[in-house]
């Protein structure tokens, strides 16, 4: 069964620091998809990014960047020059193809990392 | 475009009462999911539907929980009778029909407190 590990339960940084959130996954499939979601204090779950297993190029979106390394089964998320508004719980997730009707079970979330950015 | 819409956003109810949570998925999406989030268990998948048909309800905690999707634009999650341990945030989510590449989009959640 697939698995997603986010070893960092909580991280605190001071505003303007860079911070990296770790995500390690386990899967036996060669085709899979990785996601990051953000859950701010208001509670909603916001989709941030999706990557497929065949695309190992790093991605940058503003202050956010993602480093996907199949060799280490990691999909880490870096926030550059963090801001107080980045304070949230961040979830990494893994999706495997499987059967269409297994899609729900095959979408697995990690436990989340709570990031606090202090002013 | 409107995202996943859930109601109520917050509900406080007494133990033993019936609770009904409602969800309108994103238009055009034909997979719908109900998740529950608690501090102890994190995000748990309760049930999901493809094309309005329940595919897997193995995550539903017990018979007190039931979910329906009478049409493509509406789903309910019902708890009857409610208990204090049901207090949690319940998320509805939707995606295009069950493909691994498809992103699941979440509603804002329904915060349930059972006293």
**Largest chain interface and its two residue counts?**
A-B, 29 and 27 residues
The residue fraction in helices of chain B comes out at under 10%
Annotation field: number of helices of chain A: 0
CA-CA gap between termini of chain B: 36 Å
Q: Biggest sheet of chain A, in brief?
A: 6 strands, mixed
Judged by helices, strands and strand pairing, the structural class of chain A is: mainly beta
Total DSSP E strands of chain B: 11
* Percent of residues in β-strands of chain B: over 45%
Large-scale geometry of chain A: globular
| Structural class by sheet pairing and helices of chain B | mainly beta
Element-by-element helix/strand order of chain A: EEEEEEEEEEEE
Oligomeric category:
heterodimer
Radius of gyration of chain A in whole Å, from Cα? 14 Å
Q: Could you name the ranges of chain B where pLDDT drops below 50 across 5 or more consecutive residues? A: none
Mean pLDDT of chain A: 91
Q: Topology as H/E string of chain B?
A: EEEEEEEEEEE
* Fraction of residues in helix of chain A: under 10%
Give me the number of helical elements of chain B.
0
Please tell me what the overall shape of chain B is. Answer: globular
> What profile does the largest beta sheet of chain B have?
7 strands, mixed
């Amino acid at each position: 069964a697939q698995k997603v590990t986010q070893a960092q339960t909580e991280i605190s940084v001071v505003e303007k620091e860079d911070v990296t959130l770790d995500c390690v996954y386990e899967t036996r499939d060669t085709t899979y998809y990785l996601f990051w979601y953000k859950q701010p204090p208001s509670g909603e779950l916001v989709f941030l990014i999706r990557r497929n297993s065949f695309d190992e190029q790093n991605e940058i979106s503003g202050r956010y960047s993602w480093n996907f390394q199949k060799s280490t089964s990691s999909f880490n998320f870096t926030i550059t020059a963090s801001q107080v508004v980045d304070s949230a719980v961040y979830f990494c997730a893994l999706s495997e193809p499987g059967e269409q009707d297994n899609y729900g079970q095959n979408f697995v979330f990690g436990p989340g990392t709570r990031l606090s950015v202090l002013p | 475009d409107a995202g996943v819409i859930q109601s109520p956003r917050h509900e406080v109810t007494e133990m033993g009462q019936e609770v009904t949570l409602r969800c309108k998925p994103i238009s055009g999406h034909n997979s719908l999911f109900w998740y529950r989030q608690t501090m102890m268990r994190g995000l748990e998948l309760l049930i999901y539907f493809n094309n309005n048909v329940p595919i897997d309800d193995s995550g539903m905690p017990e018979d007190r929980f039931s979910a329906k999707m009478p049409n493509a634009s509406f789903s309910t999650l019902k708890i009857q009778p409610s208990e204090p341990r049901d207090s949690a945030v319940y998320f509805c989510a939707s995606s295009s029909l069950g493909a691994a590449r498809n992103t699941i989009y979440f509603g804002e959640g329904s915060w349930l407190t059972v006293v």
